C-alpha cells in the first residue's frame, strides 16, 4: 500500500502543478492498477486524503471531516456496488438458464397437431416469459386422437426437463392412451419418483375414439375443460376430480366420457386463460365461453387465435400466467 501511496502522491502533485491531459491520462491508467489490486473505493479516498494532507498541509484542517465523511460514504457505496454487481451476475446466469430451457422446449418438446377425418384441432400456447410453463402434447393413433395439456408450477431448465419426462412417458403409453385414468396413474408414479417436491404438475388428458364416437377424459388437478353442445347452443364444464401429479404415489384417477355430435367442441385451457382480471367480481369462464360462442362457426385454429387476441385487448387485461387453449371440434 505504501508504494501505491507514493505513486498516487506523485500523480496528484503533477496534475495540480500542470493540469494537462497527459497527467490526467496517467491518473486514469492508475485506476487499472487499483482495480487489479482490488483496492476498495474507501481506500482510494484515503489515498487521496493523505496525498492532499502532504501537498497542502496548511489547508487540510478544515477538509479532514469532509474526507472522513466521504470515506464512510464510500464504504457503504462499495458494499452496495458489490451487491448490485452480484445481482446482475445472477440475473445473467438465470437468463442463460432460461435460454437453455427455451431451446430444450423447441427441440425436445415439439408436437404435431393431428389431422383427423373425425375431428379438427387448433391450438395456441403463449408463454408469459421466455420459457412456457404450459405444455401440450398430441398423440395420433389408428384407434384414437389424444391430447395432454399440462401446467408445470416451476420455471427454467428443471421445468423443461420435467416436461420432457412427461412427453416420453406419454409416448410409452400409446397402447393405453385411450384410457385417461391409466395414463394419469402411470404419469403420477413417474413424477412422484423423479420430480422435486417443490414442483407441481396439473394435467388434463383426453382422447377422442372414432369407433365409439366418444371423448374420454380425466384430470389431475387441472382447470375444467369446456364442452360446447351445438344442438343446444350451450356450454358445460367438463369436471373431473383428481389430485395433482406427484403428490400421492397411489392416487387414483377416474375415466369420464361424453358423446360428440356434429359441431360439438371440447375446449381445454390452462388457468392463464381464465384468470385474466385482478380484483374484479367477474365470471371469467363466462367471458371465455361468450367469446368462443361469437366465433363458433370458425375453424378451431381461428377460434384459438381469436380468443387470445380478444382477451389481450380487453380493458385492464392482465396476462398473469402462460396462456394455452386447445379446441377440438367434431366434424
Brief digest:
The chain has helices at 2-18, 21-36, 41-55, 64-108, 156-171, 180-194, 271-274, 284-294, 300-313, and strands at residues 119-126, 134-140, 145-153, 200-209, 214-220, 225-229, 234-238, 256-259, 265-269, 323-330. With 331 residues, it is an alpha+beta fold.
Written overview of the protein:
- With 331 residues, this protein is of the alpha+beta class.
- The chain folds into two domains: 2-91, Orthogonal Bundle (Methyltransferase, Methionine Synthase (B12-binding Domains), Chain A, domain 1), CATH 1.10.1240; 109-330, PPM-type phosphatase domain (Phosphatase 2c, domain 1, 4-Layer Sandwich).
- 46% of the residues lie in helices and 21% in strands.
- The chain has helices at 2-18, 21-36, 41-55, 64-108, 156-171, 180-194, 271-274, 284-294, 300-313, and strands spanning 119-126, 134-140, 145-153, 200-209, 214-220, 225-229, 234-238, 256-259, 265-269, 323-330.
- A hairpin with a 4-residue loop joins strand 4 and strand 5.
- The model has no long low-confidence stretch (mean pLDDT 84).
Defining traits:
single chain; 331 residues; alpha+beta; Methyltransferase, Methionine Synthase (B12-binding Domains), Chain A, domain 1; Phosphatase 2c, domain 1; five-stranded antiparallel β-sheet; elongated
User: Helicity range of the residues?
Assistant: 40-55%
pLDDT average, as an integer? 84
Rg calc: 32 Å
β-strand percent reads: 15-25%
Major sheet characteristics: 5 strands, antiparallel
Write down the overall geometry: elongated
Class of the largest domain, according to the CATH hierarchy? Alpha Beta
